[in-house]
Amino acid sequence: MEQLSTVIFDLDGTLANTLPLCIRAFRASVEPLANRVFSDSEIIATFGPSEEGTIMALAPDHYEQGVERYLRYYEEFHTMCPTVFEGIPALLDMLKRQHVALALVTGKGPISTRISLEYFGLNSYFDVIETGSPAGPVKVRGIKRVLEALEIKDKETVIYVGDAPSDISASREAGVPVIAAAWADTTDAEALKAMNPDGIFYSVGDFSAWVERKLAG
Length: 217
Known about the structure:
Layout (H helix, E strand, L loop, with lengths): L5 E4 L9 H16 L5 H5 L6 H8 L4 H14 L11 H10 L3 E5 L4 H11 L7 E3 L8 H11 L8 E5 L2 H10 L3 E4 L7 H6 L4 E3 L2 H13 L1
Parallel strand pairs: 1-2, 1-4, 2-3, 4-5, 5-6
Helix pairs in contact: 1-4, 3-4, 5-10, 7-8
């Protein structure tokens, strides 16, 4: 891996521990409409598409109402995830000072992404933001769009940072080195290790130290 020019971040489970928030908002919005209880695993199994895709999978007969309720509850419940992971603001500030381009490629829809970025005060950090699609996973396309928007010529100067095996797969398909973020308690670190990412870190601090060494070298 060469000198860093660009770092692309995932959001849920990478910048902040938002997965429990997502699950609570899905449950509050969908269960009354579907008139049944959903387990965490049932909800998580629908992930890949944006939240609109999850609503379509769990309550297809109440799609518009389900999406409206989800976004309302997601914002209302955001106090259960009050901050990003410790060390993330300092990491982003350091990358900015070093003139490293920052991008966000997330499976979240545009509205929930905006809600979280505004809540966390992160809007000003990212040069490019690519969000998800109700139709299915689009992270490969999102990463490629970032490369085009930033006019990246050498993909080896870019890293994608994500917390899921699908992030590793998407990064490889897009031809970008990938760092596994294993610092959330919702992350399956063993599943990440099994996919042999270009690096795996169990704390934001350790990842930040690695980045600092890369930039100094």
